[in-house]
Amino acid sequence: MTNPQYAPTLYEPMPALHGTGLYFIATGVAFVFLGTMALIAPLVAGLAVTTLVGWLLIAGGIMHGMNAFRGDSITRESWQALVGVFYVTAGLYFLAHPLIALGTLTISLACVLLVEAGMDLVAWLATRGEEGSGWLLLDTVATFAFSTAIWLQWPSVSIWAIGTLVGGKLLISGISRLMT
Fold it and tell me: What is the distance between the alpha carbons of residues 97 and 157, in angstroms, rounded to a whole number?
């Protein structure tokens, strides 16, 4: 006669989360709060994202500059230094002119969404005979519509588009953490 082994996953569906439950709840509440604030004040959230991108560009420029001294050829070192200077300059510009940078980020978002819609269309064409492919087509149409709306209303949508997207993402992330 065999002795059945204890399988903790049958009795505890998520044993790994027992120690992190409070952390998940706290981050979930923080994400919901920050997401709600970003949806209430999307311009402030958009400017915060612009400032963050500015600092990240500066940090990336410094890394490229440091990497320029590690190159094995003068050509590679020169290009690394040039890219580093460009990143730092762009980051400083983002910090000095956050509203203009917000417009730049918004039109960049429209470009990314347009490319995504094109790639999703190709994916749908490849899978259109499969079950559930209609959802991919719906996502493609929605992404294209959102991209087009940004293009047609730019630069006025710069005031709310980035902040609203960040707020929505934070809100959804917070709710999903609380539901976990």
Answer: 17
In this structure, the dihedral spanned by the alpha carbons of residues 29, 30, 31 and 34, taken in order and rounded to 10 degrees, is 120
Q: What is the DSSP annotation of the chain?
A: -PPPPP-HHHH-S-GGGTTTHHHHHHHHHHHHHHHHHHHH-HHHHHHHHHHHHHHHHHHHHHHHHHHHTT-SSHHHHHHHHHHHHHHHHHHHHHHH-HHHHHHHHHHHHHHHHHHHHHHHHHHHHHHTTSTTHHHHHHHHHHHHHHHHHHHHHTTGGGGTHHHHHHHHHHHHHHHHHHH-
Q: How far apart are CA 21 and CA 173, in angstroms?
A: 15
Binned at pLDDT 50, 70 and 90, residue 54 comes out as very high
Q: How confident is the model at residue 60 (pLDDT cuts 50, 70, 90)?
A: very high
